[in-house]
Amino acid sequence: MKAPETRFNPRLEQRHRIGSLFYGLFVISISIGIIGLLVLIVQVLVRGLPWLSWGFISSYPAPDPSEAGLLAALAGTIWLMGLTAAFTVPVGLGAAIYLEEYAEENLFTKFVEVNISNLAGVPSIIYGLLGLALFVSWLSMGRSLLAGALTLSLLVMPIVIMASREAIRAVPDSHRQAAYALGATQWEVVKGVVLPSAFPGILTGTILAMSRAIGEAAPVIAISALVFLTFVPSDPFDRFTVLPIQIFNWVSRPQDDFRGIAAAGIIVLLIILLSMNSIAIYLRNRYQTRSED
Amino acid sequence: MRASGRTAARRRSPRRGRRDMEGRVVRWLLIGCAAVSILTTIGILITLLTEAYQFFIEVSVWEFITGTRWTPILKPQSYGVLPLVMGTLLVSTIAAAVALPVGLFAAIFLSEYAPERISRIIKPVLEVLAGIPTVVYGYFALTFVTPQLQKVIPDLIIFNALSAGVVMGVMIIPMVSSLSEDAMLAVPRSLRHAAYALGATRLEVSLRVVVPAALSGIVAAFILAISRAIGETMLVTIAAGATPRMSFNPLEGIQTMTAYIVQVSLGEAPHGTLTFKTIFAVGFLLFLMTLFMNVVGHFLVSRWREKYE
Q1: Looking at the complex, does the CB of residue A158 fall below 8 Å from at least one CB of chain B?
Q2: Residue A44 touches chain B, beta carbons under 8 Å
C-alpha cells in the first residue's frame, strides 16, 4: 500500500513550467505567419509607393522603368476575369445544383464528388499544359484571351462548385416543401426558392474563386507566354497579358528600378484582391447573421 | 416528399406537358455541367499522355527517369529528369521543415488555447496570407529574404533553394494550420474532459490526447500541404533559379519541375518540337506525384471524419 504512494511524484511545478514553455512556442508559431504578412506588406509599400502614379496605371510597358506602366496588363486582367466568370459561374452553379438537388446516391455522383476534390489539388501549371495542348493547339484558338479564360475557368471550377453546394445546402428543406405544396415543379423550386436564398453564398464563393484566378500566373504563362504588348485587347481572340505576368516580367530583370515598378504593380494587384476579399467577407457575415434568425 | 409535390403539380397545371419537358431538359443540362469536371480530368490525362507519348518515342522512359543530367536546350542534349525532381524535393523539404511544425503549433494554439475573440482576429489574417498570389511571394523571397539571409550566410548566391523554400514554408502555414485545426476540433470534448479529470495539464491534454486522436487528419494536412509545395510554380521560378542540379545544397540555385515548364513556356516553344513535348513529360510526372499524395491525403481525411462524426 505504501510503495505506490511514495513512488508517484506529480512533479506539478515542472509540468507547469514545460507547459508555459510550450505555450510560448505556440504563440511564436502563430505570430510567424502574421509577422511574415506584415513584413511583406511593409516591404512592398516602401519599395512600390514612390513609383505609383496615374501615369504608371495608364501607360504601356516600356524599356525605361520610369515610363513603363501596366495598362495592357490591367486591361488583360479585367478581360480575362469577365470571360472566366462568364464561363465558370453557369457551369459551376449547374454542377452544384445537380449534385445538391437532383443527384441520386449512385456511383456517378460519388465519382463526380471524388473527382472534384481531386481536381482542386491539381497544380495550376498542369491546367496551363491542358489549355496549351487542348485550347491553343488542338482547337486552334491560338494564344488568345478565350483560351486563357477557358483554362482559368476549369482551374477555379472546383472552388465555385464547392462554395455553391454549401450555399444551396444551407437553404432549409421546409422552404422547398412549402413550394412543392403549392404545386411547383422541381425546377421551379430551384429557380424560385433555392437559388434566391442561396444567392449571397454563391456570390461570395464566386468572388473568392475570381480572386484566386486574378493572382494566377503559371497557367496563364503557359497560354499567353511572355509577350510585350502595347495595346488593349479588343476582342476575345486577341493576345493578352495579365498583372501577375507583368509583375513577374519586371521582377526577373536585374535592374533595381524594375524591382520598384514590380512592387508598384504588386500594390495594384493586392488592392484589387483585398477589395474583392473584403466584399466577399462582408457578404458572408451578412448572410450568416441572416440565416441564424 | 419531393415526388408527391410533383404529382400535385401535374394534376393542377394546364401546361403540364411544357413543364415536364422543361424539367427533363433542365435535368440533362445540369448533368452536363456536372460532367464538365469529369471531362476536365479526362482532358488532363489525354493531353498529358498524348504529348508525353510523343516525347517517349524519341527519348526512352528509362533515360528519362534515371538520367542525372537535364540539358534539353543546350547541346549535347540530355533528358534525365532526376535533377528537376531533386530540385523540387529540396525546396519542398525546406518548406515542410518550416511549415509543418509551425503550422501544427499554430493549430494547437487556435484549437486548444486561444480564446474565441483572438482566433476570430487571427483566422482572417491567415486567410489573407493564403490568398496572396505566389508571384508576390516570389518577389518577397528574391528582394527581401535572400538579401537578409546573405547577411548571415555570405556564401548564399542570389538564386537559391533556401530562400525559396523558407518563403514557401510561410506560404503554406495557413493550409497546414487550418486543416489540422479542423481535425483537432473534431476530437470529442469528452476525451479532453477525461484527461483533465485525471489531472493532466493543458499541454498534456493537447499533445497526448488531442494530437494523437486527430493524427490521421493532421497527417492528411501535412500531405496535402507538401503536395501543394511540389506543385508551386511562380515562387520557385522567380527565387530558386534555373540551373537543374543533382545536389541537396540549399545555398545553390536549382530548378524545379514546375520552373522548367515555365521557362519553356515563356519562350513560346512551337507545337510539335521536342522541347514542347518535354514540358508535357515533366508535367505528367508532376501530375502523378501530386495525384498520389492527394489521394492518400483525402483518404486519411475521410477516415477521421468517419471516426468521430
Answers
A1: yes
A2: yes
Give a three-class secondary structure readout of chain A.
CHHHHHHCCCCHHHHHHHHHHHHHHHHHHHHHHHHHHHHHHHHHHHHHHHHCCHHHHHCCCCCCCCCCCCHHHHHHHHHHHHHHHHHHHHHHHHHHHHHHHHCCCCHHHHHHHHHHHHHCCCCHHHHHHHHHHHHHHHCCCCCCHHHHHHHHHHHHHHHHHHHHHHHHHCCCHHHHHHHHHCCCCHHHHHHHHHHHHHHHHHHHHHHHHHHHHHHCCHHHHHHHCCCCCCCCCCCCCCCCCCHHHHHHHHHCCCCHHHHHHHHHHHHHHHHHHHHHHHHHHHHHHHHHHHHHC
| Mean pLDDT along residues A71-81 | 90
Per-residue pLDDT of A18-38, as tens digits, reads 999 999 999 999 999 899 999
Asked whether the beta carbons of residue A247 and residue B139 sit closer than 8 angstroms, the reply is yes
**List of chain A residues whose C-beta atoms are within 8 Å of the C-beta of residue B109:** 26-27, 29-30
Q: Are B19 and B238 in contact (CB under 8 A)?
A: no
Q: Which of residues 189-228 of A touch B (CB under 8 A)?
A: 189, 211-212, 214-218, 221-222, 225-226
Position B6 pLDDT exceeds 70: no
- pLDDT tier, A227 (very low <50, low <70, confident <90, very high otherwise): confident
Residue B3: partners with Cβ closer than 8 Å, 6 or more residues away: none
Of A122, A216, A247, the CB nearest to B287: A122
Quick one: what percent of chain A has pLDDT higher than 70?
95
Distance in angstroms (rounded) separating the CA atoms of residues A88 and A216: 16
Give the N- to C-terminal CA distance of chain B in Å, as an integer: 26
What confidence tens digit (pLDDT) does each residue in A106-160 have? 888 888 988 998 898 899 999 999 999 999 888 988 888 999 999 999 999 999 9
What's the pLDDT at B299? 84
Which chain A residue is nearest to residue B173, measuring alpha carbons?
A33
* pLDDT classification of B97: cutoffs 50, 70, 90: very high
